[in-house]
Design goal:
The structure is a single chain. This protein is about 70% helix and about 0% strand. The chain is mostly helical. The chain has a two-stranded antiparallel ribbon with strand order 1-2. β1 and β2 form a beta hairpin. It is globular and about 65 Å long.
């Protein structure tokens, strides 16, 4: 036993050291490369000035693009809508199509994803189906060491990969523009012609990033600074899931849960490679779901409100709060939730509202929700299967428009989620209800982007922790595969200048798999809720003492 503990400790230390050395090596190379490129640019400009006779151009003049790059504009004014701080036009808002970099690592990323899912399949059969985990005796000290190792290695690898792969250049350029604008004049961020379509919450984060990124020593790392909040959110979500797994499952399974989320390719590609903020949004959603499951209604309402003010997709999860209030049937709880939610929204919105119309936030949401009037926006879902990617959702399909079909499916999904929630009548079905909502809306609603299924990965893990049904593990793996494939495929195509995914084999297979996963999920949740309902009836009939 002592020898095994010694091996575990040595292995853990070596893994952390190797990750740290890799991270430091990448950081050092990036700094050296940045300095070399700056020197080359300065020399080239000097040679050009010598040839043109303009050798006395002052530093920081109009031609000094090096000084201008990555800097916060000194005047603090916003750029015209559709332009970057440099004055050059942008091709897209975050989530829109544009150019990106990092395609040189495509083979490695796909190979890693395949290896991860094969390892996950092996772990499922060894530790879960055969229940080998119960036979393994992991001391509390070794468990803590393994958890520290997982989080340290996962964090350091994210920093290294985040620097190596620039990500989606268009999205990151927009985030950089917003960060610098917020850092210059925070309260006026939404004034004038600023092109931001994000609600206020994440602007607070970008304000901090903009301030830190303006420091000369950290300026070359602006890209990874933009990814840093999502990287921290990955770690936060993994920590929350692992703690819940230890509480409701076992210490051994909590390690597997942490490893599954930290090293999940679907999580990696979204935050660390692409540079998107869905991880930050997911952490807020998961926190709200957990608080609601743990019967902390007031605190959960704060996070649900924050989720809506982070991304409009937060509206998808609001029905869960409504279901809980209907279940409680108390006027006091309803008033309390409304007051807390209104106070949270006011605190987040007010700092931006000094020079704006009182309804500016409503107009922002209306504008954002109407930005992409298409049946599918590269989302591999039901409408993609119909060949309606980037088809106007006002177009007719079976006598009515795609938009109306999408609305009908949203209503049906909400009713199905409510049925499972009401039938389950317990905290165990709160995550499952959220999973039904996000997956159902993504797969059967219009105007969905490739990344919008992302929260389903964490929610499926959370549903398994509470319901303890092995079939939900398969759902988590399935949604991880489809989320990764959809996100990476679109990013890979964008690298090649293709902004619209054509109907082809891989997208069709992933779309069909998403539909199959949703059907399988409904079947599983129906059976679990039926079992819960039957158990409750038996308790009422025979008494809890006989069943215990």
């Amino acid at each position: 036993m002592k020898f095994k503990s010694f091996v575990v400790r040595i292995s853990a230390v070596l893994a952390i050291l190797m990750s740290l050395l890799l991270c430091l090596h990448v950081i050092n190379n990036h700094s050296t490369s940045n300095a070399t490129s700056q020197s080359t640019l300065i020399q080239d400009r000097h040679d050009m000035n010598q040839r043109t006779g303009n050798s006395n151009s002052p530093p920081g003049g109009q031609n000094d693009s090096l000084n201008h790059q990555n800097q916060i504009p000194n005047n603090g004014q916003f750029q015209p809508k559709g332009q970057m701080p440099s004055g050059q036009p942008i091709s897209a808002m975050p989530g829109r199509r544009g150019t990106s970099t990092g395609s040189n690592y495509s083979v490695q990323i796909v190979a890693y994803a395949i290896a991860f899912f094969l390892a996950g399949l092996a772990a499922y059969f060894i530790f879960v189906r055969k229940k080998l985990e119960k036979k393994l005796k992991i001391t509390n000290g070794n468990r803590k060491l393994l958890m520290i190792t997982l989080f340290c290695v996962g964090f350091l690898l994210r920093i290294a990969v985040g620097i190596l792969i620039e990500g989606h250049a268009s999205d990151l350029s927009l985030f950089k523009s917003w960060a610098t604008s917020a850092a210059n004049n925070f309260s006026q961020f939404y004034s004038g012609q600023n092109s931001s379509d994000y609600p206020p919450l994440y602007i607070y984060v970008l304000y901090i990033v903009g301030k830190i990124g303006s420091l000369k020593a950290l300026n070359p790392y602006f890209t990874v600074l933009l990814k840093f909040p999502s990287i921290l959110a990955d770690m936060g979500t993994a920590l929350l899931l692992s703690k819940l797994a230890r509480k409701y499952l076992s210490p051994g399974l909590s390690i597997l849960v942490a490893a599954f989320y930290i090293f999940n390719p679907a999580v990696f590609v979204n935050s660390t490679i692409w540079g998107q903020v869905d991880s930050f949004f997911t952490l807020i959603v998961i926190a709200g779901i957990v608080l609601l499951a743990e019967q902390k209604l007031t605190y959960s309402s704060i996070f649900f409100t924050a989720a809506v003010l982070m991304k409009p997709q937060g509206i998808i999860f609001l029905p869960i709060l409504f279901f809980e209030l209907v279940k409680r049937r108390t006027f006091k709880d309803t008033v309390k939730v409304l007051i807390v939610s209104a106070a949270t929204a006011t605190l987040l919105i007010l700092p931006f509202s000094s020079d704006l119309n009182v309804l500016w936030i409503v107009k922002l949401f209306t504008s954002t929700l109407g930005e992409y009037p298409y049946a599918s926006v590269n989302a591999f879902n039901f409408f993609y299967l119909l060949g309606a990617n980037y088809t106007k959702d006002a177009s007719a399909f079976l006598l009515v428009s795609y938009h109306i079909w999408g609305t009908i499916f949203i209503v049906l999904t909400t009713l199905l989620a409510w049925f499972v929630f009401a039938r389950g009548k317990g905290k165990d079905f709160v995550p499952a209800t959220a999973l039904i909502l996000i997956s159902g809306v993504f797969i059967f609603s219009t105007r969905m982007h490739e990344r919008y299924l992302f929260p389903a990965v964490a929610l499926a893990v959370l549903a398994w922790i509470y319901l303890k049904d092995k079939r939900i593990i398969l759902l988590s793996a399935g949604f991880s595969i489809t989320s990764f494939a959809n996100t990476f495929y679109v990013l890979w195509q964008t690298n090649g200048g293709i902004n619209q995914s054509a109907l082809s084999f891989i997208p069709v297979v992933i779309s069909a798999l998403n539909v199959a996963l949703f059907i399988y999920m409904l079947k599983t949740m129906y059976e679990l809720s039926a079992k819960k309902s039957l158990f409750r009836k038996l308790q009422l009939t025979t008494g809890p003492s006989i069943l215990s």
